[in-house]
Request: fold
Amino acid sequence: MGEGWQLLKIRGIPLRIHPTWFVILFAATVVFEQQYPLSLRGQISPGMVWAVALITALMLFVSVLLHELGHSLVALAQGVQVRSITLFLLGGVASVERECSTAKGALLVAAAGPAVSFVLAIGLLSLSHQAHHVSPVLGEMVNQLGALNLVLALFNLLPGLPLDGGLIVKALVWQVTGSQRRGLEVANACGRLLAYLAIFLGSMLLLRGSGLAGAWLMLLGWFGLGAARNQNQLLKVQKALRELKVKDVAQRRFRVLEASTTLRQLSRLRLDDAPTVTNGVAGSETPNPSAQSGGKTIGGGGVAGGGAEGDGILPTSGSETPDWILVCDRGHWRGLIDDTPLRDLPVQRWDSERIGDHLKPLSSLASIPESAPLWQAVLELEQHPRLLVLSPAGLPSATIERPELGEAVLRRLGLRLPAPLLANARRQSGYPLGLALGPIARGMVGSDGVETSASAAQSSEAAASGKQ
Reply:
């Protein structure tokens, strides 16, 4: 579903209207116009009936907006950022950046919407009598809105995703079992059952002549089945991010030079060599960095071959991000070199200047252990386009970027993308097909089987401290 048009912001939350909302607004207005003449026969003109029906439909969606605001404000209180609230064909939806990290927080957020609807229903129904004395039209409108808010609250409490009742079931199972994943599986199964039931009942109503009600129930059922499929895909993606390790995905996007290499040689390498990537990921921990890199070590006046046989250099299909150049000195890692010396120093000094005198520390590169799960790499790649992968000894062994990570997740899901799509993802340094892995990984932080962000950061820092 697209974002729609933004109308305003409430507490910093964008309120959007999707084009499909106008369809349901029109349908609701027609339904109210057909209902009102039965109770207001002879009291107002046909034109006024349409006006009252439109106002009632608009106020109904104000109630839906308040329902979603209930979710959103409690989510903000739980430290969860709310991206937007969108009104669309099937009502309203609040988009959040991640789920609550605790079962109690998730329960409070899920229950907030129905609670708002119940409060509105009780308040409106209790005022309908007084409103009727002011004006029969006003009294009928207040009574209608009170009853609809009651239906809205009860409908959303049905125990199946994506309804609030399903989220409540998920939170309760999570609280009892300690497993967020188990809660999602139970709530998703309930939602699938409700969707099939809605489609069956809608079909029966259609056969009996209740066309609008039957079609609406079937539409809700199909929407529920689609949501269940999406949740199943989410579970599969989370499983892949949890089970796959960085070493299963990493490639090599760095070269290794000797510290004695001149800036002139560095310049030639940058000008003459295309960006490269080595085939596979070696786990060697021998003292020779060239063997660990699987690339070429340039030193003195020539090029000495390093790396295992068959682990050669391959082109990177036009990637816009150049390879890193790591530097070693007689078997010890010294740091990395970029193009800064070539820009800052005159050409006349390139033959006498050695790259070993212009190094940056390896710790300046964002890094991750090769044993880390992919969800942790996704979080790090939110801030950096490429990560240095470290062996168990804390030494550079490979690199990881978004394109190969996304490709690995898709392969785990049974999808193999054509080469042009993968090449495009590499050029843009993004995930194939625009995979939104960042929000999924953020939602996994703190859940069962996933360490907290604090402990993840500590493990990353501990690994980085050993690579010098």
User: Anything to note?
Assistant: Confidence is low (pLDDT under 50) at residues 274-319, 451-468. The CA atoms of residues 445 and 452 lie 5 Å apart.
